Amino acid sequence: MAKVLVLNGPNLNLLGTREPEIYGSTTLKDIERMMAARAQEAGITIDFYQSNHEGCLVDKVQEANHHYDYIIFNAAAFTHYSIALRDAIAAIDVPLIEVHISNIHQREEFRHNSVLAPVAMGQICGLGIESYMAALEAIIYKLKK
């Protein structure tokens, strides 16, 4: 059975209340429930982890090596400057899809650059919470091939 790890970075624990005009009113727990239901339908094991701490996320990326088939990662603000996360992703053999709820390319200039994108399998942004579901569907499709 394929295993997927979904990682979420800083402030995503505040989804549903933090800037709802940008991020909507859906909570992180709601997203996890939706993803878990779809993963179960597809016969995939899915685990979730959120942290506001960069080092904890680096540890999770490193621990994922040889234990997961794919990672879905919304690194939030760390996307734009965490060389430590970028290096951790580059050091493992697990394909990673970078996701963002908002379209980072339509926001403030400092959000346009992702240091993770060059080492990610792909990037999905701007679809709201469906960015997560699109990443999961891409994984399901790849596993069926």
Walkthrough of the structure:
This protein has about 140 residues and is α/β, with parallel strands linked by helices. Helices cover about 35% and strands about 20% of the residues. The protein has five helices and five strands, in the order βααβαβαββα. It has helices at about 20-25, 30-40, 55-65, 85-90, 130-145; strands at about 5-10, 45-50, 70-75, 95-100, 120-125. The protein has a five-stranded parallel beta sheet with strand order 2-1-3-4-5, with helices on both faces. α4 links the parallel β3 (about 70-75) and β4 (about 95-100). α2 runs parallel beside α5 and α3 packs parallel to α4. The protein is globular, with a radius of gyration of 14 Å. The mean pLDDT is about 95.
Helix/strand class? alpha/beta
Please provide the ordered H/E string of secondary-structure elements: EHHEHEHEEH
Query: How large, in whole angstroms, is the Cα Rg?
Result: 14 Å
Q: Runs with pLDDT <50, length 5+?
A: none
Report the average pLDDT across residues.
Answer: 94
